[in-house]
Specification:
heterotrimer, A alpha/beta (about 450), B alpha/beta (about 725), C alpha/beta (about 325), A: about 450 residues, alpha/beta, 3-methyladenine DNA Glycosylase II, Chain A, domain 3, TIM Barrel, eight-stranded parallel β-sheet, three-stranded mixed β-sheet, 17 strands, globular, B: about 725 residues, Helicase, Ruva Protein, domain 3, Rossmann fold, 4 domains, elongated
Amino acid sequence: MALTGLQIFKLLPNTNCKKCGCPTCLAFAMKLAAGKESLDKCPDASPEAQAALGAASAPPIRAVTIGHGERAITVGEETVFFRHEKTFVHRPGFFRVLDASTPASAIEDRLTDWSAIRIDRAGEVFRVDGIAVVESPGSPEFAPAAAQAAAAHGLPVAILAATTKGAAAAAEPIKDRRPLIVPPAGADPGPFVALAARLGAALVVSGADLDSLAAAAADAARAGVADILLEPPGDDLATLHKHLTLVRRGALERIHPGLAYPVFLRVGAGEFSKAVVGTSTFASIMAVADSGGETWMPLWTLRQNIYTDPQQPLRMDPGIYAIGEPTGASPLLVTTNFSLTYFTVSTELDGVGVACYLAVVDAEGLSVLTAWSAGKFSGDRVGKALRELKAAEHVSHRTIIIPGYVAVISGELEDALGDGWQVLTGPQEASDIGPFFRDVWETARPK
Amino acid sequence: MSKIIAAAAIRGAHACMDRAERMLADAVGRLGRDAQVGFEGTAYALPTILALTGRRVERLRDLEDAVAEAHGWIPSVPTDSTWLPYLGGTLDAGAATLVAHETVESLKPLGGIPLVSGFWLGPTPDSILREQGIKLVDGRMPGFAACVGALPDDETAEQIARDLQERNILVFMGSHTNGDTMAAQLNRRGVQMNWETFLVPYGPDTSSLVHAIGFACRAAMTFGGLKPGGLKEARDILLYNKRRVFAFALALGEVDDEKYATAAGAINFGFPVIADTDIPQILPSGICTYEHVVSNVPHKSMAARAVEVRGVKIRTVDIPIPVRHGPAFEGERVRKEDLAIEFGGKYTRAFEYLTSRPMDRIEDGLIRVVGPEIADAPEGGRLPLAIFIEVAGRKMQSEFESILERHVHSFLSEPMGVMHLGQRDSVWLRISRKARDAGFRISHLGTVLVHKLKNDFPAIVDKVQVTLFTDAADVDALYPTATAAYAYRDERMGALTDEAVDTFYSCALCQSYAPNHICIITPERLGLCGAYNWLDGKAAFEMNPHGGNQPVRKGEVVDPVLGQWKGVNDFVSTASNGAFERFSAYSMITDPMTSCGCFECIACVLPGTSGIMIVDREYPGQTPVGMTFSSLAELTGGGQQTPGFIGMGTLYVLSRQFLSGDGGLARLVWTTTKVKERLGDKLRARCSEIGHPDLYEKIADETVCTDLEPLIEHLAAVEHPALGLGEMI
Amino acid sequence: MTLTVKPKTWPGAIREVTLGAGSRQGLTIGGGKGLPLHTFEAAFPRRPLLALEITDVDPPRWVDTVRAPWDGALGRPDVAAKRAVEEYGADVVMLHLVGTHPDRGDRSPAEAVEATRQVLDAVGVPLIVKGPGGGSRQNDVLVRVAEECRGEGLVLHSAAQEDYKSLAAVTVAYGHVLVAESPIDLNIAKQLNILLSDANVDMDRVLIDPMTGGLGYGLEYSYSVMQRIRLAALGGDRMLNAPVICLVGEEAWKAKEVKVDGTPAAVWGDRARRGVQWEIATALPLLEAGADLLVLRHPEALAEVRRVVDGWFVAGS
């Protein structure tokens, strides 16, 4: 049974010295209880406290950071098995596999393209998280160049090594960029452990079963490797899923220190389903072979879904979104920035095929009714937001369609907008937008 | 049960059984035991016999067995000296009568007497049952009436038929009174009778009424999936009918022994009898949901009374007012330049007052305007207004009055061109010219209220009448009654204590995002969202027994100081899926309640101050504990027990039981100005009550400090009472 | 050293529900005694089934890339059903009566019955019949279909909390299976099952549709609510242990991301292939969250999910 925040607090000095970075001992204790801090941040912790908290205060899964600077990626620190229990903390990183034997100029082109990719979706930016450089055994000279090129673009690097020598050659020059060394399957781990320990690099360890995996991790840790990732066995999805599950469960139950690390997976060409299972089932870093651009959007989006904090729903950026190719005479609708609301409404509008503008106002990510009852979608607030978004500049008319559930704000909103604006109450459910356009908008539309 | 009825029913049962047995013996004599018997178009053989005995009668020999069995159910007629026969024996006699009736009906065709002739339709085939029976079961048709006998004249017959039709009630007709039948009466009036008009004449004999029972039995077997068999199966079929098929019998004209016997049969199904003659009443409920036999009912109110006795709920789809209405018009404004008439605001007295009455004191649907109507007032004029709503319901309780009254606002906001603001005696109501020109009258406010109250609260509201006073003298005369009621309600709510009740209510509406969270709402601790108090929970449960608010029996006291009861702990353990075993209503330290995420405020301990702080959702800044609302929310929410931290409704601060297990209000050392302002004088009053009249001023807020050290200094400087209470942990 | 992660055992199990009867070859789903797909530690007597969706009329909202494999069969339910089963290997067919929606063809209940009959005649697998959605038309259509096709063990999609009585009655009367749909809410799912049970519907004839959010469009809500429903069921809640059906294809192919070309191509790739992967990436997480019956649209998505399921239940057992 884990200690509660208050129980931990009683073990702390209660000096509110702020040396741990928290303003009060209680705040620090609560973070410890949540597995988000470790006791060594407290310089004045008594030996009794250390004994009592000891292992219990360390996060069940260690944090591991790959890369350096703005694009460094941290994984691990997970505390739950089901996302609904709290949340999954660190989104997994998808490292795009780069064959090092590709001509240098082509590599440079690709890295330039890839590192520049930014896709905004529901408040998150999708980017290429890192590059997994493959060492071709026949031409060891290519990998170091590719790794350096990737690092030069600021991207985290994993080295899918074929040989110890190759791994050393690729990792050494970028060792201060926290690369990840991935030994070849079935290789003797010894030399790689020594290499990672020497360079301070992160290392992937593997094993044929749970026991040997945990033992390998423990050995590496003893040899001085701090940042470890576990590559669980499993040639087929069921076996892999079993080990992914057992590693997470074992880590949370703290059955062996060798399991207290994030997980690494290789996804080969054509193994899309494996990437999907990895994303939903606890994998933290995946080296994904490129089997066509279409792999990426679904994976990123799945990751976004699974790693959304259940208590912090996805939010859209406020703005006026065009559906189809609207003109000044097109309908203008307004809704909240709760992503699910936005998606439901925009998808339906898309399906109905009526070009229009959808104004999304900041309602702190709440759905329409909840936002209204919390005072975040009142006539005044919506009016103010519409003015800030310059809604009037998008349409030539002065009619705004509001969600049916907040018919009650219509008068207040008309007052707040002034200037001849009229409020038209739309349907309560998005699925009724089609009939609404046909039956209500067509007769009520400004002529 | 009335002895007169019991004796008559048992006599009647014997008579019916004799006739059935004679006819059966005759048929067997003529056709032999292997002759086939049955109704056309049904796969349920003789359905009533099948349901009651489990016997699938196909040949006369089967019928002999069924009749013999049923004969055994009939007790002997009670003599003048017996006093204890009644209920069970009479009901058995009724059931036997139904078997006898069905026997007679099934034998008629074998003796050359057709079941279908002229306007008589005879037994209903399965094909119609499938189409119409489902409507009884799924509620599209509110119920059926079995009309027994005839009315004094043809006009009254038509009136009764129309009254029932208007309510969408299916009308079966059978039997006769003094040689006349209701169906013949309707026929003479030129009324169409068939399955399209829902007027279905079965036959002129009392025995034909068994087809109505057969219809009900088949509905249960078909749509309830009930398999006939022995006694238990028969009972399930009867119960299904009681719960889902809202049927009743109208006894028209003299009630003879056979009709009594038939009525006793119907009561087995939970179908009560409403009579227009002065027969003995059987009021207490037992078999039927409410009364069993209600007599001497005037023809004019017969349909309405029947609906009430059977508990039939009738929903209106369209509210008959001349303007469009619906939630879409809720927020619209009626501006001065569009105004036809207005009430209240700052100009005239206007209030709304809803009260409950006994069932018989209310004429359902009665709407009166006492004083000027809209046409009598000048354009854009003003009138005083009292909206006086009287409701009655079997499950209505005076405690629900305020909850229903609160809905007047949304109801009266729904017609297009009507603007309603405020509540109680702060009402402001406007009607637009457009609405007036479309025909909207003041009386239509009543129409809306009657329909909405009945449609939206069918579980507690059976009858509504509305009086709209628009004359200053009347309005002023009613006003003291209304204000007294408002004051009484407030006082009662204030006086409602946790000790005074034996049941709390749960709220699981937030489990979708906090899976193990469960709110326990007590009279002195409202839901942490601030939106739901104990009464709301109670009313919600009455209205939807399977909903998110369930009653929680307190049970034995486990700890009076912390506020723990065995019943609550058991409930919490189950409702949280085993995650939590104990809940304290009055402590944030020991087994505190869980928090979902929609709390109005968070209270948290402040070590070093011996006190606690409360921060509200709107407050964006830093707090003395070193966390903002959102970081506090992250560790308090999600349905976990987090000792030292709770989510709460703001008004809980004013409760006598506010963290009483931890030291109570005197512990409050810091909160936000918003919370202080919202609670204002009421908080001052509570401070005085606990003996610290100057506590309000001693409670710090963000204008005093947002850090712990200055807060501790402040508390020492003002000599905050928390300092004398000792540390909480 | 031997590490032991204690296997999870549960007091409850998922109910078994048989789809199809009469002229159908019946297929049973449910029965799982552990967390979904945890075949390594619990018994799963039935594997999840995969259905393909067909429609009564040419579905105007289907995007070209998912129309392609149905070329020549759209709006021809008999042809589509045969193709779904014989060519594409669907275990079950879902006939979506799109055309009965007042705004999408307004076809009569009689026409709906006709379309259903065509499918029943064309294939022998269990059939899911999906109405036009909420409101009185849904009942008119499904009640008629249920009555006219009695005894076929149809899966009627779907009854909701506000309006379940008619479909409950015909499920009982005519021997079908009823889908109880709830808006991503465990408590409503449970309440609805209690109501259905009160209406004498045998719980062995009920499936839960917790409502599917497609990938990127609320998938996480469905995912978590399904996991919670499954935990409650395994914990012994007999009002939540019905098998779960997910309408994957319908939701996945609504996404904007399957309709647009998207740039840069380096991360958007081929639109048709992306659509299929969108559907796969919706289906697999839902299987993991507890789906027992997936309704898909694209045969290539079905083929890949089939490969995964088959491999899983051989390898894991």
